[in-house]
Specification:
Its main location: membrane. This is MauE/DoxX family redox-associated membrane protein. It is a multi-pass membrane protein. It is a single chain. With 185 residues, this protein is mainly α. The chain has seven helices and no strands. It has one domain. The longest helix has 24 residues.
């Protein structure tokens, strides 16, 4: 159980780290994220930038909280709360017919859609399971180096799948059909 919990903790930490780094790597990246928050159409314009900043601050707080085993329950709780809010915002925007580009990881991805909801729900479930398992994970001897390495080896590719979800979806999407051309005469 300890290694499963550690894998989930590493997965979430890597995903949130990628989100923070992607959004804060440049002024343009953060501006793109702020623009996507505004395009959701859920907030008054004056609240968009502070709410976007708060979201990035919570993402940034999750990473060190998950890195320290004693603080992991707080990290799981913060991750779950943020994922619930973000999922709710995506669902509300979709209900309003809005599909702004996903700037979840700092770059303009595909327009938000059901796959973003599924991604967030799965990450929420990882956070909730980690929160439930964290008291049990602390029992017994500490994780050994080989177990920590194995947990990282499992978490890293899963985090890459989450972070590059839009790219993978585009890669496997059916090619757009070309418009019909009239026959040559």
């Amino acid at each position: 159980m300890r290694y499963v919990e550690l894998t989930g903790r590493l997965l979430l930490a890597l995903v949130f780290l990628a989100a923070v780094v992607g959004k804060l790597r440049s002024r343009a990246a953060f501006a793109g994220f702020v623009g996507s928050v505004e395009a959701f159409g859920l907030l008054p314009r004056r609240r968009v930038r502070p709410v976007a900043g708060l979201a990035v601050a919570v993402e940034a707080a999750v990473v060190p909280l998950l890195a320290v085993p004693a603080a992991a329950p707080a990290g799981y709780a913060a991750a779950a709360a943020l994922l619930a809010v973000l999922t709710g915002a995506i669902l509300a925007a979709l209900r309003r017919g809005r599909r702004p580009a996903c700037h979840c990881f700092g770059t303009a991805g595909a327009p938000i859609g059901p796959r973003h909801v599924v991604r967030n729900v799965l990450l929420f479930l990882v956070a909730a399971a980690g929160l439930a398992a964290s008291p049990m994970a602390g029992a017994g001897p500490p994780a050994g180096a080989a177990g920590r390495l194995l947990a990282l080896a499992a978490a890293a590719p899963l985090a890459a799948l989450v972070v590059r979800l839009d790219d993978l979806a585009a890669l496997f999407a059916p090619a757009p059909s070309a418009p019909a051309r009239p026959p040559y005469r």
